Amino acid sequence: MTAALCPGSFDPPTNGHIDVIERTSRHFQRVVVAVIANPSKHPLFSLAERQEMLADGLSHLTNIEIDSFDGLLVDFARRAGVTVVVKGLRAVSDFEYELQMAEMNAALAPGLDTMFVTAKPAWAFLSSSLVKEVARFGGAVEGLVPERVATALKERFAAG
Ligand SMILES: Nc1ncnc2c1ncn2[C@@H]1O[C@H](COP(=O)(O)OP(=O)(O)OP(=O)(O)O)[C@@H](O)[C@H]1O
Ligand SMILES: [Mg+2]
Question: Nearest to residue 30, comparing CAs of 74, 75, 67?
């Protein structure tokens, strides 16, 4: 069975993430969407919250599994039974870092390939960090993130 892994921090998921995962799901029978726990990055949303937001934003797809991991991506990929990692590429700025990660992962786990999906032009400049920055100062992020995420951002910043 062909399976792909879409890893990310998803703090929070944006329409750009949803688009890449949707498109990946059309080409693979099984797509594992894995949230990188990475507590050292001080995420705005907990692991459980990020997983719930992804499950909600991807509820229209039937071949998605939501999971999470800590540590090396190659170890998780082996446990999850996937041989392809699919990543989204936005501007040139993503390229260097993503290429580095892809080469390192291939060196650590021969046989694990990374494939890139170009960002949809509408989301080419969208990132979780930018969305958080805008929401923090009361800017409207509706239309850039799933509805549930926009609500969660409003609540988070109203509270804090
Ligand atoms: N707007 C987008 N279009 C296409 N791919 C995207 C988009 N945003 C993120 N991705 C891809 O999704 C994967 C996970 O990204 P990540 O969780 O780091 O999101 P991010 O928006 O870059 O967050 P941050 O701003 O915290 O770095 C990466 O492969 C990244 O390139
Ligand atoms: Mg990023």
Answer: 67
Pocket around ligand 1: residues whose beta carbon is below 6 Å from it?
A: 8-11, 14, 16-17, 20, 87-88, 90, 94, 119, 123, 126-129
Q: Which two tokens stand for residue 121?
A: 């032009």
| Domains detected in the chain | 3-159 (3.40.50.620)
**For range 14-32, the mean pLDDT:** 98
Which residue from 80, 84, 88 is spatially nearest to 106, judged by alpha carbons?
Answer: 84
pLDDT at 160 over 70: no
Does the pTM surpass 0.90? The reply is yes
What is the SS3 assignment for 68-93?
Answer: EECCCHHHHHHHHCCCEEEEEECCHH
The contacts of residue 18 (CB under 8 Å, 6+ apart) are: 57, 58, 146
110: preceding bond cis by omega (within 30 degrees): no
Name the token pair of 60. Answer: 């229209």
